Amino acid sequence: MCHVKYRGKAQSSPQQQQRAQSSSGWGWGVGKHQHESIISPSAVSKSKCPLRSWGGNLECWMFFSQLYPTNNDRPMCCAAARGVGSWLSRSQQKLREEGRKPSGHADKEVMAATVLTSLSTSPLVLNPSSAPPVPEPGSRAWKDVLSNSYSSSTSGNWSWDTSDQSVPSTPSPPLSNDANKNFPLLTPGDDVNEDVPESTHFMFEDPIPRKRKNSMKVMFKCLWKNCEKVLSTSSGIQRHVRTVHLGRNTDSDYSDGEEDFYYSEIEINMDSLTEGLSSLTPTSPTTCGPPPVFPPPLTAVPHSERINMNSSHCPTPTLLSQSAPSTLCHIRTDHAYQATAPVRIPLGHELAGLGNGNGTRPGHGTGNGISVSWQSPHVLFKGVLGSVIPVRTVSIGEKRQPAAITHSTVIKNHALITPAPKSAPGTRKPRGEAKKCRKVYGMEKRDMWCTACRWKKACQRFTD
DNA sequence: ACTGCCGGGCA
DNA sequence: TGCCCGGCAGT
């Protein structure tokens, strides 16, 4: 199962971080002391682990250098963690059902679950809007969760180095006295389905139906590639996935929950639909372009993702609908590891990347640095298309969804997001590469320039 | 800072 | 129309 391995002190220099990120495996860390954890690809049931969406071979990187320095950073991690936690919780349950106590690798798996689910259940994520910055306790409590739970139960491979005081404190969620309730631990033997705070219940079970306005219609959309089946019930969509895509027996009630990854819950604002968004149909539920393509099994999308049709969640719907034909807008996702855009973490906030699964540095590339943002009811996502800060870039799912962010998309985003130049763009002639009179003759021989050059016009002698 | 050149003013 | 130059944008 999951081999959680401490691989030594983390890389403090960018070069070291770079080297580390270019290796395989996945890991996480705190502050300057990053710890790597490796999930053995061969040992993990790929068909169950949501991490497969990061590359199928589970070679993905998570570096949480400063845990959740900002609200904006958290959902990525949390979402991923939540997916893992859900999966691991199932694994636990299966172990119990089989009458076995998790131990050894399984124990480490549970530890991983604790780490990840703790991430995912942070109160800030659950309710970031009510989270004024309070120094320190967030990460500390997080570490406490870990140390209290597993510092003594692991075989020395695992540790949290909390001694490093150089890690700057960052805004953290307010933790009430019962903060631990918001950090449900997956400890061996616990029944993950019992006494789970309601706020975290949705992690492990089907989403609790939330109070919605009457105008919000919840539908369930199949995310299997080229399948846009939309059904009104989760059971229906599960049955659809199970029978149509997973090839399982219709009559069998057996379900291991894998169907969850292949559909998403979408909210359709009936008011908006009737007020002029009639072009939006349940089969194309986002206003941001075509639905994301999730080629299974590499791209498993847990069901708790919700694509929100309510345009009020998108601050600039027109712009985003044109510029981000993916899941950038209107998607309220609890499993953002399927997000399509690299996310630039604000400077000073060392949440480094979730790797792209092939061992390359996440986000290394175009340097366009186009900032985008999208909002969910839980959190405002901010990111960058064409990341520019490799170490501080989260590049999630880009390998899995290469079509989501295309070059043309980036161009379009750039044109749409960046302020329009004062003069009309495109009218200006591209700068020629040929040497001009000024270069050839120099200022001293200005009289030898062509007339145009002398007049500061486009050179007529050395044209391109 | 340097370079190319657009847009506009002036005679 | 010829000449010149401010200023923008790319390198």
From TrEMBL:
Residues 11-24, 151-164 have a biased composition (Low complexity). Its main location: nucleus. It is found in: Nucleus. GO terms for molecular function: DNA-binding transcription factor activity; RNA polymerase II cis-regulatory region sequence-specific DNA binding; zinc ion binding. GO terms for cellular component: nucleus. Residues 165-180 have a biased composition (Polar residues). Residues 220-250 form the C2H2-type domain. One of its GO terms (biological process) is regulation of transcription by RNA polymerase II. It comes from the Eukaryota. Residues 1-29, 151-191 are annotated as: Disordered. Keywords: DNA-binding, Metal-binding, Nucleus, Transcription, Transcription regulation, Zinc, Zinc-finger. This is C2H2-type domain-containing protein.
